[in-house]
Amino acid sequence: MELRQLQSFVTIVEQGSIGKAAQKLDVGTSALSQQISKLESELSTRLLQRSALGVTPTPAGLAFLKQAQLVLRHASQAVEAAQSSRLVGYVSVGFPPSTASILAVPFIKIMAERYPDIKVHLVESLSGNLVQLINSRQLDIAIIFSQDIDKNWFLQPLVSESMFLIANDDFLKIYHLEDYLKLGSIPLKALAKLPLALPSTNHGLRKLVEQQQIELNVTYEIDGLSLLMNTVSNLCVATIQPGSAFINHRHQHLNFLKVVDPSIDRTNYLISFPEDELSPASLAAKAVIRSCIHDLIEQQAWPSAKKVE
């Protein structure tokens, strides 16, 4: 099996046609067909389904496609590494909004300092969306809030965050919660029936809050962290978010009360391809993520966060 065969197969699937793939690769249609036939013969299975509308991958072809794309990607990175005395490559990393608000900038800064020749693609999206991007191999690494993933992926718990009730001054006065400011915390039962702005029901944080034995009054469903925090700042509504969510919103005169009795805690998990499939650039990025988290917790810059051993 040759890299040329893998490239031909991937291009055919992407183009949906042997003819179009031949034009893109600047080879003859007959030669390209022969490459695929030889590849299918070596694997003893059919990879492509041919029809009048073009070609589509068979189930075996889909499974082979993911691995072929990975091999080609690593081969390209190997060439780049061989041509440079420094670690080079590309890594795509996904952070959920609340985690990105505290971790993204330190991560980018350290990557730039330690590995200036690694290109970093950073994606901010909801945890569930990041899982989908990992599954489709559009991301190398991501931080998510759920252990419910494919068993083939690498999963490591990183940090546990406590949840806070976040509200402006008017909200605390109207609902007679000012006394909790002195304590810096609020019992879980006091949240019952308070008007809340929370992410929609498919969001991991919403599911975590709904697991608690209290009656929620969700007035607004907002999936964007910035919009959510601005809503809480300007309207008479509260939200429940981790400490990382208000790092960039202290100037908005919001109050942050840790939820206690019992506390609500959420774990950040690092997810990636299996370790033996990761490029050197991806391994470097994972190390930087863990280093950043360690430093933030040591410097007490991540409110109520605890490293998970």
UniProtKB/TrEMBL annotation:
Keyword annotations from UniProtKB, A to Z: Activator, DNA-binding, Transcription, Transcription regulation
UniProt xrefs under InterPro entries: LysR_HTH_N, LysR_subst-bd, WH-like_DNA-bd_sf, WH_DNA-bd_sf
Gene Ontology terms describing biological process: regulation of DNA-templated transcription initiation
PROSITE patterns (UniProt xref): HTH_LYSR
Claim: Transcription regulation is one of the keywords in the record: yes
Domain HTH lysR-type: 1-58
Family recorded in the similarity comment: Belongs to the LysR transcriptional regulatory family.
Stretches that traverse the bilayer: none
GO molecular function, one term: DNA binding
Cited Gene3D superfamilies: 3.40.190.290, Winged helix-like DNA-binding domain superfamily/Winged helix DNA-binding domain
Official protein name in the record: HTH lysR-type domain-containing protein
Organism name: Acinetobacter brisouii CIP 110357
Coiled coil location: none
Pfam families reported in the protein's UniProt record: HTH_1 (PF00126), LysR_substrate (PF03466)
